[in-house]
Automatic annotation (TrEMBL):
SUPFAM superfamilies in UniProt: TPR-like
InterPro entries: Ig_TPPC8_2nd, Ig_TPPC8_C, TPR-like_helical_dom_sf, TRAPP_III_complex_Trs85
Pfam families tied to this protein: Ig_TPPC8_2nd (PF24544), Ig_TPPC8_C (PF24542), TRAPPC-Trs85 (PF12739)
Residue span(s) of domain TPPC8 second Ig-like: 835-952
GO CC field: TRAPPIII protein complex
Chain ranges of the TPPC8 C-terminal Ig-like domain: 1140-1270
Organism whose genome encodes this protein: Capsella rubella
Full protein name: Trafficking protein particle complex subunit 8
Length: 1304
């Protein structure tokens, strides 16, 4: 910590609590010194501060000490009086105003950084004029009647040698009315006489004579001579002018211009001799005399008791002790003189002696003054810190209790107290003291609050928020006092605290008021710049936002010009929404198509764009190898076609804002290398195949055409970013080379809006989109430049590299105009039911005169869309054109379909605003939200360009709602080969609509279908209600005769493959499922519902045709569907065995049993698998307990119990081996039948083939016999069993009942 004497307070006390010298001089003396632009006192003042005087002093004790530092204060007699309050107030205001005017030139500078403030030394943090203001504030309390350190210690009488009667003037000066008449000055004051000699116009002889008379009259030691103005020309320049800091109102070159160096040395010696030989010894003697008097009257126990007794009995009030002749006043003078002579122990003892007296007398102002000096004495002598702070607190509180009359003294006490705390590094406590002395005067409060703010920045740890908050309070007070410059300065310093915080409201407050105040001082440009900071104030109230916006536009209008603002925050631009849509070889039918991810389009176009090598790289990838580096970073666009930029604008305010003239900022430059580059591109395309054969051939072609190798980058011009309008210029002149769209819109409070801006180049060159500009209120032009943003992109090796975007995305190589195909699909619904089949028309148009050819199309979902085979309109209304008998409506044309790519006929060519309409079939295959992507490839003729083909991309979204869901279960017939029972379950999944079912068809020529029940009984209500389920049964028959027969070439009548399920319209024809579009959609469904390699060869495909019920008012879909097709593929037959068989023979036999009854049977076995099957037939003779005939009275022997059996009995493979239940126990046993012939037979059956095995039984008695006592053991060949889950098995015989009767 700094020693108290060397601290800021110590230096202040040395200057302010120091002896006062009263100066009395004649007018000629003033006239002599005014030649130097200074008065007499001003001339001597710089030399009254002695930093190394070294004078021995002895006061109350016999111990001698030496004064090292000493200061004199010189005042004219007329100035030795208490200053007028109003004059002092004006003086302080002038100090502040003058300091603000000096800082005016710094108002345009950037606010200081907080790091710079913290790194500055303590003396440089606060403004330099603060110390001057503090001194002036303390001097407003000079010459108080309760203090003695401002009373004159000596009187300096000054007379010029040019005065006519110098001796008489000396006597008259001290006896004049110019002396102070406050009753506090000692009439026996020390007097010193000074004769001034002007070397420019006074004679030396007279001066010597007058000096001799003075010494004889007043004494030799009390008189001195001062010779001045030794320079005859009066143009002396002082390098270090000692008066510059004391009188700044006059140019430093004129101050002391007649004083030479010797004159200055003489003045210094005079003042130092006056202080060391006269004032200090006089004060030393005065202290000793006062100390002796006080010791005799007040010190000691006897005197203290006497004084206390006298005070209790006196009738006078407290003011009786205030006179200069009172004992208390003498003690106060003793203490102040001792303080000025740096004898702080004597000063403290004197102050303690009268402190109690003043308190008992209730002389509170005197008491507070003594306490104040005690605190300063404790501090400067580096004694008890606690006692010093107690005394200062006591003095301050006592002054404040006096009310308005004591506030100025409290202010001075607070200043000294705060400086004391700052010297001891107690800055936080010092700030609280500054805050306590703010008072009601706003200008004074502003300075004190600013003092407090700098204390908070000096605390450790730093209290930045309190620093900024007190600066804001100070700035508000400055503004209330019209000190705008200081208000701006404090608010600028506060910005450094709040600009990096989230305290948005106080930040807006600071920027807004700075902007207002800059406008007041006429700096409108800076005002606008600060007001721009508060435009993004969506968190403020609506009323506050209106105030901000109104004042902002008012300030802008006062400038009288349009302001272009880079980075304007109204509206806010969402750069993440930046979307660039342009067309090179890729063109788009709609905005939705342009927003689709590029990877989706590329996957579609891989098969449609011609590739030149096995790596599937198109020519655009190859041409990039020949592009210069500058063009490699550019995209390609076509002259006459717009480049679209989608950008989101957001209004951060709660009030509506009108945005006008929104446009892009672009530049189009024509490059001299473009023509040469175009030739190279053309040459490349003509000989691209040769290039792949051999690169040397390509090099020879280049040399043959005389083209130079492109191995250096084209020259580029650097744009000047001063104005956005300069960017929208072109270097090709003559007329504008591009057209910009302008958009006007209004943003509501907090509203976001996506705006599309376009630029359409009309010439070839390099187009750069630099940014976007807009206007607010016709006076503010907002500009936002698209800066480069580094993002990460993965290379082929997986490493990451920086890629600049969106700069690269906004740089285009503009090429020559090309044909552009436009496309649309008529009557495409946005919402439809699953299975809905629609007829659509694709319309393509080319407005260019250059023809296009070789059109090809690829669709992302062939399951949903199928191109038609004709370009003429249908002659029959849809959907009747799909019924049987209307096949002539579908005109077959030569089209090519490879890998889901549809190639238009070769004779199709478009040019000159001609169009083509091509049919499309749409079927909503599955429910959900479906995105359909169409890409149409076409080539251009007679176009000299680097681009030989283009693609048209189309995107549509469909919402498919659930309709009917079907499921099928197929089981083999137990009695007939190649017949199967089908159960169809239908569920209406729609929320409200009803459907009608029309027909069910089997796909292909293998399966025939027929009803198992009447049509009217299937769905009596005619409609299937929402949520209703339906089950119905059918019989299907496998029409193949042998395994070698190709069922695909078979032709069945339509009545065998289709079943009509609706009887309302008896003459209504069935739908044709064999031809397109139902056949093509079914092929797509087969591939989507399961790979053919994993499908059983016996699988069956069904198509159910339905429609929306006529009585149903559809609210789910706007366009009522006319036909719905529901495809179910790969329905397998429920069977665990690859075999099907039947036992054929007679059902009833009559025999007389005179001979052996032998019956011949035939077992027919069919192999339904695609592999060779080995089958072993084992016959089993019935046992007595299982097959013995039963007899009863009145009945023929041999009858058996037989359950009810029907031919159409449903039987699956799982129950084929089941036996009949045992007959009732009441029946008696009878002899069984036996199998005659071979008991075991093995056969090999070819795939999908049938074989017959002869069997024979012998019956011994009449009866009903079950001939199921046999089994089939089967095993598949190895290559079939490898792909099947079961390779072998055993099947039990099917029940077959034979009735044997006794013949007569």
């Amino acid at each position: 910590m700094v020693e108290p004497v060397n601290s800021s307070l110590g230096k202040m006390l040395l200057e302010e609590v120091s002896p006062v010298v009263m100066v009395l001089c004649t007018p000629l003396v003033e006239e002599t010194f005014l030649k130097n632009g200074l008065s007499f006192v001003e001339t001597l003042k710089p030399f009254c501060n002695f930093s190394n005087i070294d004078v021995p002093v002895r006061t109350s004790s016999d111990q001698l000490y030496r004064l090292k530092k000493f200061t004199l204060r010189l005042f004219y007699a007329s100035d030795i009086r208490q200053p007028n309050v109003e004059v002092a107030k004006q003086r302080l205001e002038h100090v502040i105003t003058q300091a603000g005017e000096k800082d005016f030139q710094n108002l345009t500078s950037d606010p200081p950084q907080i790091t710079d403030i913290l790194s500055n030394p303590e003396s440089e943090i606060a403004p330099s004029w603060f110390q001057y203001y503090n001194k002036e504030l303390i001097r407003t309390l000079s010459f108080s009647d309760h203090e003695a350190f401002d009373h004159p210690v000596a009187c300096l009488l000054v007379v010029s040698s040019k005065d006519e009667e110098p001796i008489k003037n000396f006597i008259d000066l001290f006896n004049s009315n110019r002396l102070p008449n406050d009753g506090a000055m000692d009439p026996n004051i020390l007097k010193h006489y000074l004769l001034v000699h002007d070397n420019q116009d006074a004679t030396t002889e007279r001066t010597s004579k007058v000096l001799s008379e003075m010494r004889s009259q007043f004494g030799n030691n009390e008189c001195n001579l001062l010779c001045t103005n030794s320079s005859k020309e009066g143009n002396v320049e002082h390098q270090a002018n000692p008066w510059a800091s004391f009188k700044s109102s006059v140019s430093a070159d004129k101050l002391g211009c007649a004083l030479t160096g010797d004159d200055i040395v003489e003045i210094k010696d005079l003042i130092q001799e006056f202080a060391s030989r006269h004032i200090i010894p006089y004060m030393e003697q005065k202290v000793r005399e006062l100390n002796q008097q006080i010791s005799a009257t007040r010190k000691g126990l006897r005197n203290q008791i006497k004084n206390l007794w006298w005070r209790k009995g006196k009738d006078d009030g407290p003011d009786a002790t205030k006179g200069s002749i009172s004992t208390e006043s003498q003690i106060r003078i003793l203490g102040d003189y001792a303080f000025m002579l740096h004898d702080y122990e004597l000063a403290l003892s004197s102050y303690r002696l009268i402190s109690t007296d003043y308190k008992l007398d209730k002389a509170w102002k005197h008491y507070a003054g003594v306490q104040e000096m005690m605190g300063l004495a404790y501090f400067i002598s580096d004694q008890s810190k606690k006692e010093a702070e107690y005394c200062m607190e006591n003095a301050f509180s006592t002054y404040m209790k006096l009310g308005k009359s004591g506030f100025q003294n409290a202010t001075r006490c607070g200043l000294w107290w705060a400086e004391m705390l700052k010297a001891r590094k107690q800055h936080k406590e010092a700030a609280s003291v500054y805050f306590r002395i703010c008072g009601e005067e706003p200008l004074h409060a502003a300075v004190m609050l600013e003092h407090a703010s700098y204390c908070y920045v000096l605390t450790r740890p730093v209290m930045l928020h309190k620093y900024g908050f007190h600066l804001v309070l100070s700035g508000d007070h400055y503004k209330n006092c019209d000190q705008v410059n200081h208000a701006i300065r404090t608010y600028k310093s506060a910005i450094t605290v709040y600009k990096s915080t989230t305290w948005s409201h106080i930040k807006d407050h600071v920027y807004f008021h700075i902007g207002q105040w800059y406008a007041i001082v006429g700096m409108h440009d800076v005002a606008v710049r600060n007001m721009l900071k508060v435009l993004d104030c969506g968190y403020q109230s609506k009323a506050t936002q209106e105030i901000f916006l109104r004042d902002f536009f008012d300030i802008v209008k006062k400038t009288g010009m349009k302001h272009e603002v880079v980075g304007l925050q109204l509206p806010i631009i969402n750069m993440s929404s930046l979307q660039v849509i342009y067309e090179d070889h890729r063109t788009y039918a709609s905005q939705a198509s342009a927003l689709v991810e590029e990877s989706i389009w590329q996957s579609l176009e891989d098969d449609i764009i011609p590739s030149l090598n096995s790596g599937k790289s198109n020519w655009l990838e190859l041409q990039s190898k020949l592009l210069p580096k500058k063009y490699k970073e550019s995209n390609v666009c076509v002259a006459g076609e717009s480049v679209k930029v989608d950008l989101e604008f957001r209004n951060p305010l709660l009030i509506s804002t009108s945005i006008t003239s929104v446009s892009l900022i672009c530049e189009l430059t024509a490059n001299s290398d473009d023509l040469q580059l175009g030739k190279l591109y053309l040459l490349f395309h003509v000989h691209v195949i040769i290039f792949y054969i051999h690169q040397v051939v390509y090099a020879k072609l280049i040399s043959t055409f005389g083209l130079c190798k492109v191995d250096k980058e084209p020259s580029s011009s650097i744009l000047d970013p001063k104005s956005s309008t300069e960017h929208n210029r072109v270097t090709t002149s003559g007329f504008s080379s591009f057209a910009l769209s302008e958009v006007d819109f209004t943003l509501g409070g907090g509203e976001k809006k996506l705006v599309r801006l376009t630029v359409t180049p009309s010439e070839e060159g390099i187009l750069k989109i630099v940014g976007v500009r807009w206007e607010l209120s016709g006076s503010i032009v907002g500009v936002h430049y698209f800066q480069s943003v580094p993002v990460k992109a993965k290379t082929a090796k997986g490493r990451k590299k920086n890629k600049l975007t969106p700069t690269d995305a906004l740089k285009f190589l503009v090429i020559k105009s090309l044909p552009r195909l436009e496309g649309s699909i008529d009557h495409l619904p946005g919402k439809l039911y699953a299975g809905d089949l629609r007829y659509l028309v694709l319309e393509l148009k080319n407005k260019s005169e250059s023809p296009i050819k070789n059109l090809k199309m690829k669709i992302s979902h062939p399951r949903f869309v199928s191109p038609g085979n004709h370009e003429e309109d249908l002659t029959t209304e849809f959907p009747d054109c799909l019924r049987k008998g209307n096949e002539q409506d579908i005109v077959q044309r030569e089209t090519i379909r490879t890998n889901s790519v549809f190639a238009f006929p070769k004779d199709v060519s478009l040019q000159g605003d001609k169009s083509i309409r091509w049919p499309l079939w749409l079927r909503a295959a599955i429910p959900g939200t479906i995105s359909l992507y169409f890409t149409i490839y076409y080539e251009m003729e007679n176009v000299s360009s680097i681009m030989k083909y283009r693609t048209l991309r189309m995107h549509y979204k469909l919402q498919v709602l659930p309709s009917l869901e079907t499921s099928y279960e197929i089981t083999p017939s137990p009695s007939r080969l190649q017949e199967y029972l089908v159960r169809m379950d239908i569920v209406n999944c729609a929320k409200s609509d009803c459907f009608q079912i029309h027909q069910l068809s089997t796909v292909g020529c293998r399966w025939g279908i027929s009803l198992l029940q009447p049509v009217d009984t299937i769905l009596p209500s005619k409609t299937l209600l929402a949520g209703q389920t339906l089950s119905c049964f059918f019989i299907i028959k496998d029409c193949r005769k042998s395994g070698t027969e190709d069922y695909k070439s078979m032709s069945l009548p339509s009545s065998q493959t289709d079943v009509k399920l609706f009887t309302q319209d008896g003459d209504e024809k069935l739908f044709d499922i064999v031809n397109s579009p139902l056949a093509s959609f079914h092929d797509s469904e087969r591939s989507c519902q399961g790979p053919s390699a994993q499908v059983s060869p016996n699988a069956v495909d069904f198509i159910l045709i339905s429609s929306l019920a006529k009585s149903s008012n559809s609210s789910a879909v706007p366009d009522v569907p006319e036909i719905l097709s529901h495809h179910s593929c790969h329905n397998s037959i429920r069977s665990s065995s690859p075999l099907s068989w039947s036992l054929e023979g007679p059902k009833t036999i009559h025999h007389d049993f005179s001979t052996l009854c032998e019956i011949n049977l035939k077992l027919i076995i069919r192999n339904t698998s695609e592999g060779l099957s080995s089958v072993i037939i084992n016959t089993i003779d019935c046992l007595l307990d299982t097959a013995s005939p039963t007899t009863s009275s009145g009945s023929q022997s041999g009858w058996r119990y037989v359950p009810a059996v029907t031919e159409e009995m449903k039987l699956t493979s799982d129950v084929m081996g089941s036996r009949l239940s045992k007959p009732p126990s009441s029946m008696e046993s009878s002899p069984p039948f036996i199998w005659s012939g071979l008991s075991s037979t093995k056969v090999q059956i070819k795939p999908l083939s049938t074989t017959e095995i002869p069997l024979q039984i012998s019956v011994f008695s009449p009866g009903i016999y079950d001939l199921s006592s046999y089994k089939l053991d089967w095993e598949l060949s190895e290559h079939v069993s490898a792909s099947s889950t079961t390779s072998s098995g055993t099947c039990q015989g099917i029940p077959y009942y034979l009735t044997v009767l006794q013949s007569e």
